[in-house]
Write a structure and sequence with these properties.
The protein is α/β, with parallel strands linked by helices. It folds into two domains: 169 residues, Alpha-Beta Complex (Quinone Oxidoreductase, Chain A, domain 1), CATH 3.90.180; 140 residues, NAD(P)-binding Rossmann-like Domain (Rossmann fold), CATH 3.40.50. 32% of the residues lie in helices and 28% in strands. It contains eleven helices and 17 strands. The strands form four sheets. Strands 3, 4, 5, 6, 7, 16 and 17 form a seven-stranded mixed beta sheet that branches. It has a six-stranded parallel beta sheet with strand order 10-9-8-11-12-15, with helices on both faces. Helix 11 links the parallel strand 16 and strand 17. Helix 2 crosses helix 3 and helix 2 packs across helix 10.
Length: 335
């Protein structure tokens, strides 16, 4: 009988803590599906979990935030149906059991790696733009980390919805920002907020800030009166090309660097976004929005950005690349 290969973390630490083990194929329970996994997205959150810093996830565990696979057995979908799911953990495996309610059918026009690259990043981008803000009122928006996984999709979604979109990036990635439909803003030269206000004639309606820390103050300064900052990450933890997790923790405690009085007196607002919280509190939104993301990609409206595909036994290499910030798109494991 075929065994189930999976990656297992038994102690917090570096990428070497990701161990390939073999065990029995899991059995689905009521309302669950057994999937034979075809592609798994490697997320920054997986690295944080491996270090023992992710709330609610205890070691030992198997990482794997987002998967695409074929139904083997279970309730809700016929066998061989290809589905995508936000699993949070457990995805680094040949077989995985997940709730049928978490699964969405993948369009035939997408490959499994393409679909897997969109589950977390695509869902995050679409929900922030269509659920966290009143999208019809958004005429101009700013995206930090515009060349990254979530940022690049926000640029494309902005173009799709007819929003004037500004993307903050390094000078070397401004060409990519423009290609994706954004107006480039160089983060390494001058006052970003002033540059945005000059280019947008007074400021933007919403800022999507996946950097956090001291950048949050700049995000507020780039808003027009009545605008909104949506915080969804803390990439300011990058230091010297590597992620400094002590710095990330410090930024979680200090951002945004704006007093409540200065925020409310300006009529500007602040909102945080966490994909797992939205999935739990709005399960209908989750399924509808994930299906829409995959459909938009199948129609060519947004583009999956994949850096490379690796076999399951190279999960440690994938984590090294993520930890060093060397990937320019999603890294996919293909069991």
């Amino acid at each position: 009988m075929e065994a189930n290969a999976k990656i297992y973390v038994t102690a917090a630490g570096g990428p070497e803590k990701l161990q390939l083990i073999h065990g029995p194929i899991p059995v689905p329970g009521a309302g669950e599906l057994l999937l034979r996994v075809e592609a798994v997205g490697v997320a920054f959150a997986d690295v944080v979990m491996r270090l023992g810093l992710y709330p609610g996830v205890r070691i030992p565990f198997t990482p794997g935030y987002e998967v695409v696979g074929r139904v083997v057995s279970g309730e809700g979908f016929p066998p061989h149906t290809r589905v995508a799911a936000l699993t949070v953990t457990g995805g680094y495996a040949r077989y995985v059991v997940t709730a049928a309610a978490d699964c969405v059918v993948v369009p035939d026009a997408l490959t499994s790696p393409e679909a897997a690259s969109l589950v977390l990043n695509g869902l995050t981008a679409l929900q922030m733009l269509t659920r966290c803000v009143a999208r019809p009122s958004v005429k101009k928006m700013l995206v930090w980390g515009a060349a990254g996984g979530v940022g690049s999709l926000l640029l494309e979604l902005g173009r799709h919805f007819g929003i004037e979109t500004y993307g903050v990036s390094s000078k070397g990635r401004q060409g990519q920002v423009a290609k994706l439909g954004g107006i480039p803003i160089d983060r390494t030269h001058g006052d970003v907020a002033e540059a945005v206000k000059r280019a947008s004639s007074g400021g933007v309606d919403v800022v999507f800030d996946g950097v956090g820390g001291p950048v949050a103050a700049t995000s507020f300064d780039a808003l027009r009166p009545g605008g909104l900052v949506v915080l969804f990450g803390f990439q300011s933890g990058l230091e010297g090309g590597k992620r400094n997790f002590i710095k990330i923790a410090r930024n979680l405690l200090t951002a945004p660097i704006k007093s409540a009085q200065s925020i409310f007196s300006s009529g500007r607002g602040l909102r945080g976004y966490l994909v797992t919280e939205w999935k739990t509190t709005h399960p209908d939104f989750y399924r509808a929005d994930l299906a829409e993301v995959l459909t938009l990609a199948a129609q060519g409206k947004i583009t999956p950005l994949i850096d490379r595909e690796l076999p399951l036994d190279e999960a440690a290499e994938a984590h090294r690349l993520i930890g060093e910030g060397r990937n320019l798109g999603k890294i996919i494991l293909c069991p």
